[in-house]
Amino acid sequence: DDWKPDSGKDESMEFRLNVCQRVQLKELDIKNPEGVASWGKKNKGTSLGTLSKTPKFRGDTLLLEYDDGDDCPNASNYKKSTMIQFICDTTVSGQGNPFLISHSNDCTYWFVWRTPAACPVDRPSGGGGGGVFGTIIGVVVAVYFLGGIAYNRIVHHARGLKQIPNYQIWVEGFDFIKDMAIILFAKCYRPKRSQSSYHNLPVDSEINTLIDDDYEDDEV
């Protein structure tokens, strides 16, 4: 649908705007109504700008400009144009409504539109800083390894794995981790002793009897 901007106290001018499509009003008494997205009428209808579907940011301000309208009355080398400034506002009802801020020499028109449609829909997830930090760490690690390899190769004439910077420390660290893993694995997965091997052992009374018998044999 078309939007009817509020022109304030000046009721002599009627406006129609549309966003992302041309003005739907059928009674557009202008030469080429097909692409008109901003229209105004005082005594006679006029094109205030043709359709554009590419809003642009200027700083933090979202703007949509319709240019190449009808000729300006006092400057035939210029065409009428419309600038719509969208402002995020969640307090207005519905999608809000544009209102006329100013116009210059019946040639350029500036509308402000406070609407929740101009508010951001995606909030930062907080992962941007982490991504930058991760990138920095990656660059530092890459410089450390590549620079160390180049240094060991050129200065110490190292070859093979010994080109890696602080190679001995890495080897000792790997061995330490391997030993700790073996120890932990052995503690966690130590097989349980079978209880069945103790079933045939004599009880205390039987042991005492055997000891007494041996003692008597020794006396004889």
Automatic annotation (TrEMBL):
Q: For this UniProt record, give its keywords in alphabetical order, as a comma-separated list.
A: Disulfide bond, Glycoprotein, Membrane, Receptor, Signal, Transmembrane, Transmembrane helix, Transport
Q: Which SUPFAM superfamilies match?
A: Mannose 6-phosphate receptor domain
A GO CC term assigned to this protein in UniProt = Golgi membrane
Q: Which gene encodes it?
A: MRL1
Originating organism: Linnemannia exigua
Which Pfam family is one of this chain's hits?
A: Man-6-P_recep
> Where in or outside the cell?
Endomembrane system
The biological process GO terms on file are: vacuolar transport
Residue ranges of the TM segments:
132-152
Specify whether Ribosomal protein is a keyword of the entry: no
Positions of the MRH domain = 1-121
Primary location group: membrane
What name does this protein carry?
A: Cation-independent mannose-6-phosphate receptor CI-MPR
